[in-house]
Design goal:
Layout: H1 4-10, H2 17-32, H3 38-66, H4 86-110, H5 114-128, H6 142-163, H7 168-191, H8 193-199, H9 204-208, H10 210-226, H11 228-231, H12 245-256, H13 265-287
């Protein structure tokens, strides 16, 4: 039986900024447009967190039963390390997705029924990342889906539930948010290139190779922290988010130094911290 601490570690808390930041920024863009329905913003946060946690447990389950996690050097893997039964981890993922579905249904009934389809697509993307007969994460499309769902969809969707419409500002703000979410997966897959290649998991990092993946990670961070300078043309205080570059320097240096394996584990947390700092600053700048 896994302990409570191991179940918490299995939820991969270092990845949770990817769920929190787009909601913060989405609420800020709604505020900039003149209207925030706070309970809907809170509900959107609950949905985002539940989908992220559900995806993490689903990934743990699917990779574990495929045998991909046997040689992992990263954070806790409940199934791969034999800490919890595969069925229990699968059920934890399903329960998280169920929470997202229930709260999302309430939001859809309060706003627009088409959000049901969006929510279903988000949950399906979370499960099929490494689950199902042809997981798209094994084909190198994980980063693209993260950019779309934890960037464009999450920011614009959060803005929509307050405003009842999608604004150009929400799309513009979603781009750097999506890039930072994408950087979390890039560095995670960079660390796992040797084991993923052996297991037949053809992630984007495996396809690009070590050097190009490090360049991709750096580009995601650099473009994201520079983007608020352009947003400042419309929302001047958005430029304060560029200050997140200070937090980003350390993980970028580690990645560019050629660090491998366990030396890259702290980079995931540092990248999440960068994303959180950026998101808070961007939200403040946009809303001001």
């Amino acid at each position: 039986m896994a302990t409570a601490a191991e179940w918490l570690a299995g939820a991969r808390p270092r990845t949770l900024p990817a769920a929190v930041v787009p909601v913060l920024v989405g609420v800020a863009t709604a505020h900039a447009a003149g209207r925030v329905v706070w309970w809907r913003g809170g509900a959107a946060l609950a949905v985002s967190l539940a989908i992220q946690i559900g995806t993490n447990y689903a990934n743990d389950y699917s990779d574990g039963v495929r045998g991909t996690d046997r040689e992992r050097v990263g954070p806790v893997r409940l199934v791969g390390q034999g800490l919890a039964a595969a069925g229990a981890v699968r059920n934890a993922g399903i329960a998280s997705f169920a929470v997202a579905a229930v709260v999302g249904l309430v939001l859809a009934l309060a706003t627009s029924p088409w959000l049901i389809a969006v929510g279903a697509a988000c949950i399906a993307a979370g499960w099929l990342y490494t689950g199902g007969p042809r997981p798209y994460g094994y084909a190198g499309f994980g980063e693209l889906f993260v950019f779309v769902f934890f960037g464009i969809v999450a920011v614009a969707g959060t803005s929509y539930v307050s405003l009842g419409r999608v604004t150009l500002l929400s799309f513009e703000a979603a781009v750097p948010v999506g890039l930072l979410a994408m950087s979390l997966l890039v560095v995670n897959n960079l660390r796992d290139i040797p084991t993923d290649a052996t297991a037949g998991k053809r992630t984007l990092a495996v396809r690009l190779g070590d050097r190009a993946t490090r360049a991709l990670y750096t580009a995601c961070i650099a473009v994201a922290v520079a983007a608020p300078a352009l947003l400042a043309l419309r929302r001047p205080l958005a430029a304060i988010a560029c200050a997140a570059a200070v937090v980003a320097v350390r993980p970028v240096r580690v990645v560019l130094s050629g660090a491998e394996g366990r030396a890259l584990v702290p980079v995931l947390g540092a990248t999440g911290l960068t994303q959180l700092a950026f998101g808070i600053l961007l939200a403040i700048g946009i809303a001001a």
